[in-house]
């Protein structure tokens, strides 16, 4: 994989140059200062972070939770910004820089359209896939990319883990990038001649206009379960944040898993053509997926659709939920116009879906107790993985996990309860405490686990490295350790700091130390 070096964003190498005067007239911006100053002024990029300004950029100063972006206008100018778009408050903050200031009432709401125009992403777009839902977005995105690759189609990918096109990749900060980055990334992927682009769409992305300026060809919905209630407060509000993705302003067609009530509700509320997919027998749906065989490393399933269409294949990852994700990806591809027969041909040829999903039920080595590193950090993610493990493991399930600070505290008790009910041994540790007191987070998890199953073997070990070694010290070769939380990540966030920590690398090291490797 080639990294993008110092870049923290993917951008086109040869962006079009646009006249600032065209921007002003097209978006009806109010100019503070002399209009004549804008004559002939060209811009070649757009960003909302002073830290990522490149020469020739339009800098957008947004009012944020902690600061107003216009406060950083001088920094943006020093890095080569040619003009600033901001609101009235930002105009006053940016005035001392002497940069041309272009004012609009709600710059965040304009960001998608501005970025699409700057980078020209509406012209000849690739086939665009959007994936939403509480859990499974990253997995479905990787599966879509993998099947497209098997079909010989080059696809760009934007997930929680990474943004990638071919060999060019960068680590992601957010699940869905800000609109300026989304359109820069799309332009770069267009340059690389991507025929398709897959974007994970979080609820926050929809609420904060991050995918504005895009009309997806096909959007997919996995599920809606308890998470992000710090942002949305009720499940209904969380649902309403996702629902706009299934409207003509944002997508042409949709595929919805209707196993649970929220999916059924979304299929009814969608104002674009939607096909439904279920994994429960007896449910009325257009497509139906059934599990044929489960092992710790592979899940085999059959997918049946309208007109007696059918494919039987497998995904090299644990879990019924991963088969659901795979089935959703296949139906999304069919909805994009690829016949199921073509998909079946390549899957049969290759012996199944050839996918690697970093940090999702990822098996570390193949010797000693099975160690699975998983990005699960919500009650439903815990349930899905633990239920699947129980069906395939002979020994005990040792579950190691923590709950992240500064993120929806209302899910913590349920996470503790589920771990105690569905695992045999529970080890509770720290996971990104951020600005919260880690001991207080652990206390909630331990308390909930103890209350749920009195007598359950439960350990509390603050340091994640020591906690993993505690789990390993308890394991025999028949047991499995599920380490839920860190997944693909390579840091542990404490206070405002990212401390280097890879659960995958540390697990490998510990397996060596204990003589299993
Ligand atoms: C709540 C939220 O969404 N916050 C986002 C917001 O931060 P903020 O309003 O606090 O920004 P701020 O620090 O006040 O700064 C205001 C402006 O000044 C700019 N600035 C700031 C400092 C500086 O030196 N230079 C500069 O230009 C910032 O870029 C920003 O435009 O704007 C920032 C810049 O784009 C985002 O990084 C930040 O996401 C934070 C990190 C975040 O945690 N967001 C989470 C809630 C999120 O979006 N999660 C979803 C879902 C994940 C999932 O499914 O699990 C996601 O898509 O990632
Ligand atoms: N379809 C599913 N149903 C329930 N749980 C799932 C499903 N798919 C994955 N999971 C669980 O959720 C975890 C996160 O999966 P994934 O990263 O694919 O979801 P996501 O929606 O992208 O989450 P995030 O936005 O937090 O990255 C997995 O590691 C697994 O534990």
Task: Report on this structure.
- There is one protein chain.
- It is built from 17 helices and 27 strands.
- The longest helix has 16 residues, at 320-335.
- The chain is globular and about 75 Å long.
- The protein has 517 residues and is of the alpha/beta class.
- Mean pLDDT is 95; it is low at 1-7.
- The two termini are 27 Å apart.
- It has a twelve-stranded mixed β-sheet, with helices on both faces.
- Adenosine-5'-triphosphate is lined by residues 133, 135-139, 160, 175, 200, 222-223, 321, 324-325, 360, 374-376, 380-381, 384-385.
- Adenosine-5'-triphosphate binds at residues 133, 135-139, 160, 175, 200, 222-223, 321, 324-325, 360, 374-376, 380-381, 384-385.
Keywords:
517 residues, alpha/beta, 12-stranded mixed sheet, 6-stranded mixed sheet, 17 helices, 27 strands, 34% helix, globular, binds ligand UAG, binds adenosine-5'-triphosphate
């Amino acid at each position: 994989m080639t990294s993008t070096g110092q870049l923290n964003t993917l951008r086109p190498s040869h962006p079009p140059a646009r006249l600032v005067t065209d921007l002003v007239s097209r978006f009806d911006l109010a100019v503070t200062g002399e209009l004549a100053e804008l004559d002939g002024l060209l811009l070649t990029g757009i960003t909302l972070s002073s830290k990522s300004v490149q020469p020739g950029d339009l800098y957008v100063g947004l009012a944020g939770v902690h600061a107003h972006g216009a406060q950083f206008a001088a920094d943006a100018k020093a890095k080569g910004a040619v003009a600033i778009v901001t609101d009235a408050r930002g105009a006053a903050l940016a005035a001392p820089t002497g940069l041309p200031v272009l004012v609009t009432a709600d710059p965040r709401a304009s960001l998608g359209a501005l970025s699409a125009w700057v980078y020209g992403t509406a012209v000849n777009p690739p086939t665009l896939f959007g994936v939403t839902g509480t859990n499974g977005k990253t997995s479905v995105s990787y599966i879509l990319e993998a099947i497209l690759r098997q079909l010989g189609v080059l696809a760009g990918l934007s997930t929680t883990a990474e943004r990638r096109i071919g060999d060019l990749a960068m680590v992601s900060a957010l699940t869905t990038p800000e609109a300026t980055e989304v359109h820069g990334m799309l332009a770069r992927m267009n340059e690389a001649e991507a025929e398709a682009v897959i974007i994970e769409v979080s609820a926050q992305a929809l609420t904060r206009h991050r995918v504005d300026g895009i009309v997806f060809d096909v959007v997919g919905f996995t599920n809606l379960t308890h998470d992000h209630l710090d942002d949305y407060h009720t499940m209904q509000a969380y649902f309403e944040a996702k629902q706009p993705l299934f409207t003509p302003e944002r997508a042409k067609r949709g595929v919805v898993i209707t196993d649970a009530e929220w999916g059924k509700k979304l299929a009814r509320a969608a104002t674009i053509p939607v096909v439904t997919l279920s994994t429960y027998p007896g449910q009325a749906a257009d497509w139906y997926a059934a599990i044929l065989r489960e092992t710790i490393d592979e899940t085999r399933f059959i997918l049946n659709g309208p007109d007696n269409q059918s494919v039987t294949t497998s995904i090299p990852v644990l879990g019924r939920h991963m088969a659901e994700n795979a089935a959703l990806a296949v139906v999304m591809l069919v909805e994009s116009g690829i016949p199921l027969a073509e998909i079946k041909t390549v899957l049969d040829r290759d012996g199944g879906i050839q996918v690697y999903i970093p940090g999702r039920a990822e098996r570390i080595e193949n010797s000693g107790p099975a160690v699975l590193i998983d990005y699960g950090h919500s009650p439903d993610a815990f349930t899905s993985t633990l239920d699947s493990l129980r069906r395939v493991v002979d020994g005990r399930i040792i579950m190691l996990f923590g709950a992240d600070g500064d993120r929806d505290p209302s899910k913590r008790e349920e996470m503790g309860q589920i771990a105690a009910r569905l695992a045999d041994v529970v080890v509770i540790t720290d996971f990104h405490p951020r600005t919260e007191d880690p001991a207080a987070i652990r206390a909630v998890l331990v308390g909930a686990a103890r209350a749920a199953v009195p007598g359950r073997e439960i350990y509390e070990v603050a340091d994640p490295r020591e906690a993993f070694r505690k789990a390993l010290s308890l394991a025999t070769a028949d047991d499995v350790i599920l380490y839920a939380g860190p997944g693909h990540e390579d840091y542990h966030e404490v206070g405002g700091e990212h401390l280097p920590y890879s659960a995958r690398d540390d697990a490998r090291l510990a397996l060596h130390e204990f003589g299993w490797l």
